[in-house]
Amino acid sequence: MATLSPTQSPKARRRASTRRRNNSHLPPYNNQSQHDPHDAAIAAIRTFLKNHTSYDALPVSFRLIVLDTKLNVKKALQCLLLNGVVSAPLWNSERSKFAGMLTVLDIIHLIQYYYRTTSYDYAAAEVEHFRLESLRDIENELGVAQPPLHREHPSSTLYDAARLLIQTHARRLPLLDNDSETGHEVIVSVLTQYRLLKFISINCNKEIQQLHLSLRKLKIGTYVGQATEDVPEGQRPNPYYPIATATPNTPVFDVVHMFSERSISAVPIVNEEGIVVNLYETVDVITLVRLGAYQSLDLTIAEALGQRSPDFPGVVICTASDSLGTLFQLIKRRRVHRLVVVEGEASICLEEERRGGKKGRLLGIITLSDVLRYVIGKAPVSDMAEQEEEVRPTQSEPNIGASASTSAEFSADAGGPGPSTAAAAPSSETPEETETHPEE
């Protein structure tokens, strides 16, 4: 009869199994994290965000434009354009309270309303007197969703701030504190998706190098033919569904309608062969409005792009085989808000670097929201329910407005944002002279 050695004994094996193991330093997001460098890197980035606050991600030097709800639309728009921004926190001077954010989409809704219901001449005259506090009435008329009145404390973790951005489908998050002497709300700054992702790209170099999986494999972005099983081919709005597209001959107003109806900020421009030739953005519409050219909404996209500022940075193009790490390296080098995915094997590049060559057929589009949603992942249901209870907006609070002033011009006695707490804590990022918050 065979005998078991001490090391083979079931009793010995049971004793060995009761030994206490050291806890892992990385959260156990999945069973493969210990073996897959990509998953381990994502887990480490999430831990990094939980150990840093929103203060840490703010630049050393920045300016903050705060607008009052009593300001009319035209002056508010001029204020934004003169300061090189396309969004700003709003302030209700009567209540001495934060009143939400003014974004390009608010202006898009207003343009759509005037274009549908009035004449050009009436719109040009009315916009001189129309106050931003009435914008929500316009949105109700159009039947579009109103943005939530969300905010976060600057000392909250970046992980919590990122989760709130994802939960509310927002591109930017106002950071509010309270003045210790007056108790009034103080608008400290605005945390954008780009600022948050750039903070990761600068401070998590080792982890980013491990993000080797492709964007398509990670299901980051929206791709042609995605989620179309329940939509008959003949009923799809365009052959690139669910991506909204336009051609050079599409009227500008048709694209404005896409912006307003789908709450998107850019539409790829494709030719008859499906080749991406350009990108039309909400900021391009604002350029036309600034010039007072309301009738320009009847122009074609090709004609409107001829009036685009020469400072336009170009379209960022990538392929589905590009890695998430490569995308983070791009965010580290330059400001980018979205990427157009095309056929081919070339890595991420700029449109102007590909002139004279075939840019590729449209395959998809990737936004910063898509990237952030993947990096943060799905939060536990209990945590999300708790957070929804904490940030549930007050429905009666107005969420628009503007006054052409910087935060330093509001005094603490008046209950304004006040300059005392607007300074950002130094981050690990290279200091910048001035930081603004453009559309993302």
Automatic annotation (TrEMBL):
The keyword Repeat applies. Residues 1-10, 393-409 have a biased composition (Polar residues). CDD domains: CBS_euAMPK_gamma-like_repeat1. One of its GO terms (molecular function) is protein kinase binding. The keyword Disulfide bond does not apply. Residues 11-23 have a biased composition (Basic residues). Residues 411-429 have a biased composition (Low complexity). Residues 1-36, 383-440 are annotated as: Disordered. GO terms for cellular component: cytoplasm; nucleotide-activated protein kinase complex; nucleus. Keywords: CBS domain, Repeat. This is CBS-domain-containing protein. Belongs to the 5'-AMP-activated protein kinase gamma subunit family. Gene3D superfamilies: CBS-domain. Residues 145-207, 237-299, 308-381 form the CBS domain. It holds the Pfam family CBS. Signal peptide: none annotated. It comes from the Eukaryota.
